[in-house]
Amino acid sequence: MSEPLLEIDGLDIRYETKDGEIHAVTDASFAIDTNEFFGLVGESGSGKSTIAKSIIGGLDDNGSVTAGEIRFRGEPIHSMTERELSERIRWKEIAYIPQASMNSLDPIMRLDKQAVELAKVHTDWSKQRAIDRLTELFEVVGLPGERIYEYPHQFSGGMQQRAIIAFSLFLEPSLLIADEPTTALDVIMQDQILTHLKSIQEEEDVSIVMITHDISVIFENCDSMAVLHGGQVSELGDVTRMFDSPSHPYSYLLQQAFPDIRHPKRDLSVIEGQPPQLQDEVDYCTFANRCPWSTDECVESRPPLQAVGDDNQYTSCIRYDEIEELGHRSPENTRSEVGGSNHE
Ligand SMILES: Nc1ncnc2c1ncn2[C@@H]1O[C@H](COP(=O)(O)OP(=O)(O)OP(=O)(O)O)[C@@H](O)[C@H]1O
Known about the structure:
The chain is of the alpha/beta class. The chain has 11 helices and 12 strands. A hairpin with a 2-residue loop joins strand 1 and strand 2.
């Protein structure tokens, strides 16, 4: 098998705060292959943006990688200097579109001029080449090429988001990380952006990591996915496999909360409880408190991410081989059968 494009390996990330340390990410591992459409899903505060920022060396000043490695084409990049990252990796190899990126274009400069400036700083391209590249990218994201001669304020929100995606691809990166790229947009615009991301992956030969709290967006668009809960990877692998047979209670319950055309009469479940505070060492399963099937063993140590069979699916649930059976029983009955889950 060829080497993955990006590998996150046993990653721990902490934030220093005046009230102590926040263990935002604990022992996270996943890999992204060349030309893959990868989804990173989890609820608010699960650590998605923290991981994304760490990949491009953009953690907030109080955050740091305290263990593990981030490798790009096999080379560790988490320990690169700011200069190395900005000269070799950021935008040229890995482009990151943060949440709320709507204001990231210069409002008082025409887009063609912004492209020429970008090319001047980062490449030896001619002015014409920069203009041609932006025109080509506008067409890939579904904007008429001639609109590159306009100002950002002449664009609607959805068009601005597409222009931002076009700019992020300008320097021909191999990996694009899009953090909640459609959250601020209406449903029709969301759908158009997602369709364009798919064609970008094919036409620009780029891998995409899409970050979202909406698992249905991942099921509909991605090849592989990682589910995050409380800074831990709960489940990882092929999207179809995880849709058909989730092997972690969190992804099982998320999947149950997603309307499925195959089971139109199924009740949609709600995941109860709050995510953990993450102030102390995370040496337990962060889903145990909310899990209908957790046992005392789930809070005694941190569950390892382990392979499910020989397929491309990994879970951090120690009861993974019982999930399907447990899911068919009532959570309340199950809880008393296995010894309770009140690890408050
Ligand atoms: N600069 C910071 N200082 C302290 N804690 C932080 C900081 N940034 C994030 N956190 C905490 O780290 C954890 C992970 O946050 P993160 O923003 O990565 O989650 P997320 O899954 O991207 O959430 P959202 O979808 O709301 O953006 C949360 O507990 C959050 O409060």
